[in-house]
């Protein structure tokens, strides 16, 4: 039975002047003390899925997972119940936390599990889950006592969401739906100090009309930043148009940007709008802006200065209202100094620069991101559970990730497929050998990035050099969407020499 003093302490904890995250963490600590549970989680309900806000007694990767109700029947039961849910110890419903309680050695099959749906005015905003190793662990607590904990937790979570909505909106009035859902595909996962600062900067600049320049290495998630800026802006209801400048052949680049009229050039069989017109009243994301030719930079500058575009082959100009978010993995200041990028365009674009940190500087976020990708893989492969062994998790944390978040995602996807192929169960464990991350890091000399070269003691210098060249070109091709001209510029090679080298290496 819960004592009145325990309930009072819980209420005081939730109303103290703490940050949201501190309040959530203290909530679970108090719940764990009150109910003597072995593991607990506070979950936010968003777009038919539960998003962990805080955990206690669970593996760190749980914070990165996103539990779709369609894939987790136990969580779906909690979401639909509207009241305290006590699962039988022998429930056939798979537990989303199986294998994710570090303090438990061996498989957890029979245990106590309770779900507390958090409701505000009959609207589901989240849930608290509590687990215990003993099947009879929570029998001493009545449903009425658990409802008190539920009501306090719901009030705390709702207050936090209301405050968050106020901060983002920058106004006093709050929407009836403060839990604005985030699309899973453009969610920025990360809790390290650098990512918290980045998210804070994006929240500040999003509601303005300032141009944003996103800086960072290949694979860090610059496109996600652009999506976040657009989603939080006043233009969120209008189109976000994407253009990869590195994949633009010079012959069609102007048409892609500004459009063309029928007959403007060979192959122009009809009128066509450019990206600027398509993004009118919305946002235009110019990825790899540093790859544009100087001629196109001058034309782009004119559009940014005067707000009108002129289709290829047409004299009349069309006025557009477009917000620009640009991104690059190059040091544009050095590009300006070298005469490869216009200084006036650089200053026009970099009104509000933001730097996306590389994954090697986000050590704690590797675990969260791994959990996020594991949950997505599990759903795609139709598995009940997809987990990392302790050795595999250590290897992920020690690796330097030269390809950043994109490399981590590909690594998890590949390892999941390999692990599933070796298992005949729906509960799959990824081991270290599935990751295949035993590598040395070699400076690539391009954009301060590194290439991962597998260790081999059975080849000579010539073979190792060719393998390194092949891998470097393949990475550049992938990065530039197989645009050979852009690859030549990135690798600082003559185009003809690049083609000859590629043929010799068997890449063409």
TrEMBL record:
Entry's Gene Ontology molecular function annotations: ATP binding; DNA binding
| Family matches, as InterPro entries | AAA+_ATPase, AAA_lid_NorR, GAF, GAF-like_dom_sf, Homeodomain-like_sf, P-loop_NTPase, Sigma_54_int, Sigma_54_int_dom_ATP-bd_1
Q: Show where the Sigma-54 factor interaction domain sits.
A: 188-417
Please list the GO biological process terms of this entry: regulation of DNA-templated transcription
Residue ranges annotated as coiled coil are none
Report any Pfam family annotated for this entry. Answer: Sigma54_activat
The alphabetized UniProt keywords are:
ATP-binding, DNA-binding, Nucleotide-binding, Transcription, Transcription regulation
| The name this protein goes by in its record | Nitric oxide reductase transcriptional regulator NorR
- The gene behind this protein is norR
């Amino acid at each position: 039975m819960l004592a009145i003093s325990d309930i009072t302490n819980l209420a005081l904890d939730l109303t103290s002047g703490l940050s949201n995250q501190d309040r959530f963490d203290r909530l679970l600590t108090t719940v764990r003390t009150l109910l003597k549970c072995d593991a607990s989680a506070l979950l936010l309900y968003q777009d038919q899925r539960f998003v962990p806000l805080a955990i206690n007694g669970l593996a760190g990767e749980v914070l990165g997972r996103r539990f779709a109700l369609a894939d987790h029947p136990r969580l779906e039961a909690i979401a639909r119940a509207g009241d305290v849910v006590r699962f039988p110890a022998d429930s056939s419903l798979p537990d989303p936390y199986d294998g994710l309680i570090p303090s438990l050695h061996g498989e957890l099959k029979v245990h106590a599990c309770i779900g507390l749906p958090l409701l505000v005015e009959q609207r589901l905003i989240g849930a608290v889950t509590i687990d215990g190793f003993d099947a009879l662990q929570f029998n001493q607590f009545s449903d009425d006592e658990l409802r008190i904990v539920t009501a306090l937790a719901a009030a705390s979570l709702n207050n936090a969401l209301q405050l968050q909505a106020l901060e983002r909106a920058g106004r006093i009035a709050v929407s009836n739906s403060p839990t604005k859902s985030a699309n899973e595909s453009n969610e920025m996962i990360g809790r390290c100090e650098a990512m918290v600062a980045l998210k804070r900067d994006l929240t500040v600049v999003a509601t303005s009309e300032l141009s944003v320049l996103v800086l960072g290495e290949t694979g860090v998630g610059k496109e996600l930043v652009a999506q976040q800026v657009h989603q939080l802006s006043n233009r969120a209801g209008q189109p976000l148009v994407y253009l990869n400048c590195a994949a633009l052949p010079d012959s069609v680049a102007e048409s892609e940007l500004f459009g063309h009229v029928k007959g403007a050039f060979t192959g122009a069989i009809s009128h066509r709008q450019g990206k600027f017109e398509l993004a009118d009243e919305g946002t235009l994301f110019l990825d790899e802006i540093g790859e544009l030719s100087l001629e196109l930079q001058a034309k782009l500058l004119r559009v940014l200065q005067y707000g009108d575009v002129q289709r290829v082959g047409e004299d009349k100009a069309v006025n557009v209202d477009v917000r620009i978010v640009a991104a690059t993995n190059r040091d544009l200041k050095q590009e300006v100094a070298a005469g490869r990028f216009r200084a006036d365009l650089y200053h026009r674009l970099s009104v509000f620069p933001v730097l996306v940190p590389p994954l090697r500087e986000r050590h704690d976020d590797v675990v969260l991101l791994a959990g996020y990708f594991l949950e997505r893989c599990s759903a795609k492969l139709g598995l009940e559970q997809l987990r990392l062994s302790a050795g595999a998790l250590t290897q992920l944390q020690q690796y330097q990730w030269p390809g950043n978040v994109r490399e981590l995602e590909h690594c998890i996807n590949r390892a999941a497929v390999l692990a599933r192929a070796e298992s005949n169960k729906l509960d799959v464990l990824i081991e270290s050998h599935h990751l295949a991350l035993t590598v040395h890091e070699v400076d690539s000399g391009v954009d301060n990035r590194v290439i991962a070269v597998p260790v081999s003691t059975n080849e000579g210098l010539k073979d190792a050099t060719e393998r390194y060249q092949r891998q470097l070109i393949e990475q550049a091709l992938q990065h530039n969407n197989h645009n050979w001209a852009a690859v030549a510029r990135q690798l600082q090679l003559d185009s003809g020499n690049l083609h000859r080298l590629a043929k010799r290496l068997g890449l063409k």
